[in-house]
Design goal:
Strand 8 and strand 9 (about 185) form a beta hairpin. Strands 1, 2, 8, 9, 14, 15 and 18 form a seven-stranded mixed β-sheet that branches. Strands 5, 6, 7, 10, 11, 12 and 13 form a seven-stranded antiparallel β-sheet that branches. The longest helix has about 55 residues, at about 1-55. The protein has helices at about 1-55, 155-160, 190, 205-215, 295-325, 330-335, 340-345, 355-375, 380-395, 395-425, and strands at about 60-65, 80-85, 90-95, 100, 100-125, 130-145, 170-175, 180, 185, 200, 225, 230, 245-250, 255-265, 265-270, 270, 285, 290. It is α+β, with helices and mostly antiparallel strands and about 425 residues long.
Length: about 425
């Protein structure tokens, strides 16, 4: 009797553990699904908000034709201007004696180092039922942005092969603080967004090179001048462990085009609150600078392309989360219910599901979220996305309906044909 009670209790405990395990597993799956939905919703909301904002801003900017005067009437408004820029102070890298008239000056340092990679491997035992894990270590020579310590390497032989950099240097990023275009000052945040840069080819004299070697505390035989900076090592074409590469770049002061909100004699980001309702969050803004004479239409176009690229990433991430979590859902449990069978398979009698099911359901959810986000920007596109979402969701039901209608039509035609045939015989 006691054994029966003991077995009964152990069975109940196992059921409880199973319930807890399934609750945790499917809870995590549900969280992944909801996470994908939230990411997609946020991405589409931001993208549609930005497109609405850009559509509004394209009809609101003022063009400043005379950049030598500051027009107070444009204060707080979106403005566009283009013209030659100027910087009062030259940017300087004192270590390498580099002085340039530019928006930005950069020194990037790379070290040729030995890098350790750690990979976890699983092994089956002879029966194939249990697993044991171990770590494998591999080593690779590569350029890194910081020196790598080798004293913690798992393999002692590679500890001896690794070499410290010949010299360790700090990186440098300078931005002009007194750049201007006509009577307008260009703020640092705008200058930092300029992407154009050019390499600096040093041209040191023998005396300057000797002074630099003393500063770096290295032999002058190791210091090489390259087309984009310096190389510290024997041969830039055949790097060895410990070698150092220094890349010098700058953004020259040139003609620029600016699209931003005027603030006194400077600029700030043009905010979404200028175009959207007051309850919209302060998270959509516009402030662009491009080198050369760039028309405002092209600036708007490139800004739109950047937004599209960002939304593409969020769509990929959300699609992975939604579809994988949809695949792991307990479809067998869902299909116990007639309404679920009708929705998922298009028939109350069909209880099976396939790989197409989570793909179809996940795709339908994604299209529906996208349609809600885009309906207020492009109603036609939002309506099309809604129709595609419903079509994808009810595709099995519609397919069965068409098939049933087709079979009924064929049976009716057959009956009518048989009836005519019998009439002819009579």
């Amino acid at each position: 009797m006691s054994r029966r009670r003991k077995n009964s209790n152990s069975g109940k405990e196992k059921d409880i553990y199973d319930i807890i395990a399934y609750t945790i597993i499917y809870g995590l799956i549900s969280l992944a699904f909801l996470g994908g939905v939230v990411i997609l919703w946020w991405g589409e909301d931001q993208t549609s908000r930005y497109y609405r904002f850009l559509d509004f801003a394209q009809n609101k900017y003022n063009t400043i034709t005379n950049i030598s005067n500051v027009y107070q009437s444009n204060d707080g408004e979106l403005v566009y201007l283009t013209g030659p820029a100027h910087a009062e102070t030259r940017l300087e890298d004192p270590l390498f004696n580099i002085k340039v008239e530019g928006f930005k000056l950069s020194r990037k340092v790379r070290y040729y180092q030995l890098v350790e990679y750690k990979t976890k491997k699983k092994d089956k035992d002879s029966t194939g039922s249990t697993y044991s894990s171990h770590y494998e270590y591999s080593y690779q020579k590569k350029w890194t942005s910081s020196p790598k310590s080798s004293y913690k390497f798992y393999n002692h032989n590679y500890r001896n092969k690794a070499k410290a950099p010949i010299v360790i240097l700090k990186e440098l990023n300078l931005v002009s603080r007194d750049a201007s275009i006509g009577a307008y000052s260009i703020p640092e945040w705008l200058i930092e967004s300029i992407k154009d840069s050019q390499p600096i080819k040093p041209n040191l004299s023998m005396e300057q090179k000797s002074d630099l070697c003393k500063k770096l505390n290295i032999s002058c035989n190791l210091l090489k001048q390259t087309d984009s900076g310096f190389y510290i090592g024997d041969d830039p074409e055949s790097p060895e462990l410990g070698d150092v590469s220094i890349t010098l770049t700058y953004t020259p002061v040139s003609e620029v085009s600016i699209l931003a909100q005027q603030k006194g004699n400077s600029f700030e980001r043009y905010n979404s609150n200028k175009s959207l309702s007051s309850d919209d969050p302060d998270n959509v803004n516009l402030g662009e600078i491009m080198t050369g004479t760039v028309e405002p239409e092209k600036i708007f176009s490139e800004t739109s392309d950047n937004v599209t690229g960002g939304s593409f990433v969020t769509r990929i991430v959300s699609a992975i989360l939604i579809i994988i979590s949809a695949y792991l859902m307990p479809w067998d449990w869902f299909l116990k219910h007639p309404f679920a069978r009708l929705l998922i398979n298009g028939s109350k009698s069909k209880k099976e599901w396939s790989l197409k099911t989570p793909l179809r359901i996940g795709g339908s959810v994604m299209l529906f979220i996208a349609c809600v986000g885009w309906y207020f920007v492009f109603p036609v596109a939002g309506t099309i996305l809604l129709l595609l979402s419903l079509l994808l969701l009810f595709y099995p039901y519609l397919k069965n309906l068409v098939t049933h209608t087709d079979k009924t039509s064929k049976a009716r035609c057959t009956d009518e044909f048989m009836h005519l045939d019998e009439s002819d015989k009579k």
